[in-house]
Write a structure and sequence with these properties.
Blueprint: E1 6-10, E2 13-16, E3 21-22, E4 27-28, E5 64-69, E6 72-77, H1 88-103, E7 109-114, E8 124-125, H2 139-145, H3 151-156, E9 162-166, E10 169-171, H4 173-180, E11 183-187, E12 191-193, H5 208-221, E13 226-228, H6 229-235, E14 240-242, H7 247-260, H8 263-279, H9 282-297, H10 300-312, H11 314-325
Parallel strand pairs: 6-7, 7-9, 9-11, 10-12, 11-14
Antiparallel strand pairs: 1-2, 1-8, 3-4, 5-6, 12-13
Length: about 325
């Protein structure tokens, strides 16, 4: 892919030299010199929210940072230059960090947030490492590739309450993280969506229908469109949306109140809420989501998209997708 001038593929956003295209909106962005789309400042208010305490980084900067404040463990996705897109290895590190926080006796609540101007923009994949030849793998081989997403069920079953604090872009796996939190608070200008349903995949987890019902779930998953935080709150995807400059304080106040409740009581109350969703088929729904993700990868549209990337580069693939949505 070197000849195509591709820097990296973030599952929801791609930047190419000479002509930047944007998957999230399905429209073409005018060409510019070697500048990554992920570094482009949005024209809207997206990303102006402040975040909670972010610890100092070391020389070997970590993609996942932690900090404690008043019995609240802050877990910060720390790749602001990539809008906090995570590699698969870093996603695993995130789950491990959650488990460590859950085991800490002095932690009464967990807050997940993103450093900089975004929450999480998806899975970050090196194009040189991507095998887009979907039709060469069996269903079982494809299913093994999405097996790591089973760990979202571990996140959902943590004893310690988890609050997601969302600002800026919350896309693809970012929505998986936010929607598996016990509560999500966002800035009113945050952006939620799963753009890759347009040509590459379906979500590998599914909380959409549980949170907002089938109408809103289908509205986003059948179009790949995005909605802002205020709309997400009205729909029920998140608990509430607040002005961007109030997000950090508002989230901490909520987390502190949650952390004040004795852990054995809060975990019991959380468990019964989750049991209701279990009775509504939560576990089966997640298994089906992973299977349908594989089915989507093997669809003609995904194979065409992968074929275009392999043979003509990301520019052509993105141009093809942009044409579908005007």
């Amino acid at each position: 892919m070197a000849g195509e001038g591709v820097h990296r593929l973030v599952v929801v956003v791609v930047a190419v030299e000479g002509g930047v295209s944007e998957i999230v909106h399905g429209t073409r962005v005018p060409p510019r010199s070697r500048r990554c789309l992920l570094e482009r400042r949005p024209q809207s208010r997206v990303g102006r929210a402040t975040v909670g305490p972010v610890p100092e980084t070391t020389e070997t900067e970590s993609a996942i940072l932690t900090d404690d404040r008043e019995r609240v463990r802050y877990i910060t996705l720390n790749r602001p230059e990539r809008r906090n897109a995570l590699t698969m290895a870093q996603l695993g590190q995130f789950f491990d960090t959650l488990a460590d926080a859950d085991a800490a006796p002095d932690v009464g609540a967990i807050v997940v947030q993103g450093a900089g101007g975004a929450f999480c923009s998806g899975i970050d994949l090196d194009p040189d490492e991507i095998d887009l030849d979907y039709d060469s793998r069996s269903f079982e081989q494809e299913l093994a590739l999405v097996e790591p997403f089973r760990r979202f069920e571990e996140m959902w079953r943590l004893r310690t309450p988890v609050i997601a604090s969302v600002q800026g872009y919350c896309l693809a796996v970012g929505t998986d993280i936010a929607f598996h939190a016990d509560m999500t608070v966002c800035s009113d200008d945050a952006q939620f969506g799963y753009p890759i349903v347009r040509s590459m995949a379906s979500p590998s987890t599914h909380m959409w229908t549980y949170l907002a019902g089938p109408q809103w779930a289908k509205r986003l998953l059948l179009t790949g469109d995005m909605i802002d935080g205020a709309t997400a709150a009205r729909a029920g995807f998140v608990l509430e949306a607040v002005p961007a400059d109030e997000l950090a304080d508002h989230t901490h106040a909520l987390a502190r109140r949650v952390a004040t409740v004795p852990g054995d009581i809060s975990s019991a109350n959380k468990a019964i809420c989750n049991k209701v969703l279990e009775l509504m088929g939560y576990t089966l729904a997640q298994e089906m989501a992973r299977e349908h993700n594989v089915i989507a990868h093997q669809s003609p549209a995904a194979q065409q998209f992968g074929h275009l990337i392999r043979t003509e580069g990301f520019k052509a693939a993105l141009a093809w997708q942009a044409e579908q949505f005007g």
